[in-house]
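Per reviewer request, we include the raw input and output of the structure prediction for the construct analysed in the revised manuscript.
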Amino acid sequence: MESNTSKLVAIVAVLVALGLGLFGGYMIGNNMDDMDKNESAMTQQSTKQADLRVAMNNLLREHVTSSLVVTRNIVDGASQQKIDGAKAAQTANAVAIATAVGGIYGKDAQDAITTPFVEHIAQSNNYAQAVANGDTMAQATALTALRAELRKVATVFNSVIPSVPADTLYEALSAHEDLLNQAAVEYKAGNFEKAYQLENDALVQISGGAEALSGGIVESKPDMF
């Protein structure tokens, strides 16, 4: 289902297109016609780039929210059926992100990103389970495995978006996971106000990541946008 933001982008694009059309009706001469065409092309390009930013932002924010649902269910000791349902939504989002990458860079890139992205989610959930169990050793083990998968994710993204350095992306991904992990700890401790603040911080942070990734995609694939 199309998001409200996507609908707004589409409406704005239509209004801009209509405005250019009406304005163009008063133009006389080939030079003005060429100007209309150039403006129309620029508008279309701008709209594609905006749509990409919206799509990336929606997918990555959904990644955060679906992960938080899983974490809360685990820490709250929800039924396995409820936890499994939340994990299914979380994995579906991960696959959607990989598919979006594949739609731009091809199936090889999609396959390369799918495994580490899904695996990093599994390790994140292992961390949440360790928090729920009060097992600090298991937390450390899950965190080590999580960071290894994040490094793989960063490397794959860098291979298709060279303008986004792998180290920079890895640091951003690690900071993102640190926010979610700390939120799990605070939630378990009953510090709900602090936990919710950390969760909001994670949403803001991931939106910045979406902006950087979409900008890198446009730079690497200018003919598409």
